[in-house]
């Protein structure tokens, strides 16, 4: 390469300059030694500090469950404002919006015939109620939501649908994308077919006897009503399937009494480290503040809150001056019930999304990060590779260029904001997800430190480097 450059027969200075360009082109994007050293120092500091765990413990103890729109979610927002101000972030504020309020009521189910016994269930978020008297009907089983879709309209009148589809366990959580379809659609497909109610095998990988809740598709999205729908724990789904293997019909009773109430206040909490040179350019770190009501929301998503707040706090505590760009923390409200806070943020900040340089979210539990994915323009991929090399000592491999960024990044991504994914090991995440077992004891005191190290290094580099990721 050097001889090719110098064979141009130009002056020595031109040769040197052209050689430099050739070298950079050959090796890819180069991070300044001092900047790379600062990123490595942040990673070292993070792994000797359990600040993230302390934040998770505080949120899950002082607030606990944080169902969207409830008084508990409001207390979580107050907690977040106080915590972020105490840490020393700038421009701490609440950005309010409205969210429909769904309240869980009584929930129980049982096999009536031929083998009377109780079943463990959890109503799905947004479900209609059966009334206190409940509904009774013969069970008709389907292997998947796709199979239910083939049932002719009205063909299941008076029946209770049971979708018995097992979710695959995986490191990257890819089994969820398939299994969640039955949770979103069962109520509406069962109604189309004329059924009285629906039961699904929980969208989860645990074999323990508790059910996984979660949001159905919102009625307002499709303009259609659904039947009352609940999730069965995996052992109870197995039990019901065994009962169905005998000759003769199986009749069950389902009682769920949730209420759908008018919209109530919710909100996103925003805080910043203001950039020293380009304060109008934003590097966004997100997590969601709300949770389901069954556990205390430790893994989903107090862990994410702890990770991103601790990572940004590390920058405040460690850097002699702020990075060039502004680092913005967003704790999204009402994520669990349909990404309501994410949509509200994108709409509120629509005029400035072009100045959002890159965004990402921590919302996959407390496992170690093992892969770094991007969603950058081709010209920015060498910079992504260079950032990946800085993260590599944490055991993080360079992934592909199709990152989603996380659930709350959906509307930003669709608006053209570059996103990254710092993918955690989620092998056991769906054992706990949306269950009563999502509690603080599932997270070790040092479990989050590697995550904080990765997020701190990434956000520092994204905010400091002169790179356009679009």
By secondary-structure content and strand pairing, the structural class works out as alpha/beta
Q: Which CATH class of the largest domain is shown?
A: Alpha Beta
Dominant shape: elongated
Integer count of domains = 2
Q: Could you state the CATH homologous superfamily of the largest domain?
A: Zn peptidases
Helix content: 25-40%
Number of strands: 16
Overall pLDDT score: 93
Low-confidence stretches: 1-26
Give the DSSP E fraction (strand runs of 2 or more residues): 15-25%
Q: Describe the strand arrangement of the main beta sheet, using strand numbers.
A: 3-2-9-5-6-7-8-4
Could you describe the largest sheet, including whether it forms a barrel? 8 strands, mixed
CATH architectural category of the largest domain: 3-Layer(aba) Sandwich
Terminal CA distance: 30 Å
CATH topology descriptor of the largest domain: Aminopeptidase
Count of individual helical segments = 15
User: What's the gyration radius in Å?
Assistant: 25 Å
């Amino acid at each position: 390469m050097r001889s090719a450059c110098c064979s141009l027969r130009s002056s020595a200075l031109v040769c040197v300059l052209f050689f430099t360009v050739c070298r950079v082109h050959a090796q890819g994007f180069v991070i300044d030694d001092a900047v790379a050293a600062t990123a490595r120092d942040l990673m070292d500091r993070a792994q000797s500090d359990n600040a993230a765990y302390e934040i998770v413990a505080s949120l899950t103890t002082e607030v606990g469950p944080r169902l969207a729109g409830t008084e508990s979610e409001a207390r979580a927002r107050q907690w977040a404002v106080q915590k972020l101000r105490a840490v020393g972030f700038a421009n701490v504020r609440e950005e309010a919006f409205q969210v429909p309020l769904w309240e869980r009521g009584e929930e129980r189910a049982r096999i009536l015939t031929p083998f009377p016994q109780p079943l463990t269930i959890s109503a799905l978020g947004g479900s209609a109620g059966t009334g206190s008297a409940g509904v009774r009907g013969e069970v008709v089983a389907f292997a998947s939501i796709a199979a239910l879709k083939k049932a002719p309209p009205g063909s299941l009148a008076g029946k209770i649908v049971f979708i018995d589809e097992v979710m695959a366990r995986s490191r990257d959580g890819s089994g969820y994308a398939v299994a969640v379809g039955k949770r979103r659609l069962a109520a509406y497909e069962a109604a189309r077919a004329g059924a009285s109610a629906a039961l699904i095998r929980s969208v989860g990988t645990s074999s323990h006897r508790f059910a996984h809740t979660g949001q159905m598709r919102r009625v307002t999205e499709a303009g259609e009503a659904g039947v009352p729908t609940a999730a069965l724990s995996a052992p109870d789904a197995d039990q019901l399937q065994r009962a169905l293997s005998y000759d003769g019909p199986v009749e069950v009773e389902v009682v769920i009494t949730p209420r759908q109430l008018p919209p109530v206040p919710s909100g996103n909490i925003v805080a910043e480290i203001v950039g020293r040179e380009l304060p109008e350019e934003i590097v966004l770190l997100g997590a969601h503040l709300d949770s389901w009501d069954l556990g205390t929301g430790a893994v989903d998503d107090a862990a994410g809150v702890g990770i991103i707040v601790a990572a940004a706090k590390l920058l405040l505590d460690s850097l002699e001056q702020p990075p060039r760009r502004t680092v913005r923390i967003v704790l999204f409200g009402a994520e669990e019930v349909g990404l309501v806070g994410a949509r509200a943020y994108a709409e509120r900040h629509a005029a400035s999304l072009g100045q959002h340089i890159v965004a990402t979210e921590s919302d996959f539990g407390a496992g170690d990060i093992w892969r770094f994915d991007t969603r950058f323009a081709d010209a920015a991929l060498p910079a992504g590779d260079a950032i990946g090399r800085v993260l590599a000592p944490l055991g993080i491999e360079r992934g592909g260029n199709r990152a989603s960024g996380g659930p709350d990044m959906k509307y930003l991504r669709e608006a053209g904001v570059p996103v990254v994914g710092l993918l955690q090991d989620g092998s056991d995440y769906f054992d706990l997800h949306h269950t009563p077992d999502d509690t603080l004891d599932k997270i070790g005191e040092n479990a989050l430190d590697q995550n904080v190290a990765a997020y701190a290094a990434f956000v520092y580099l994204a905010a400091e480097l002169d790179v356009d990721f679009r």
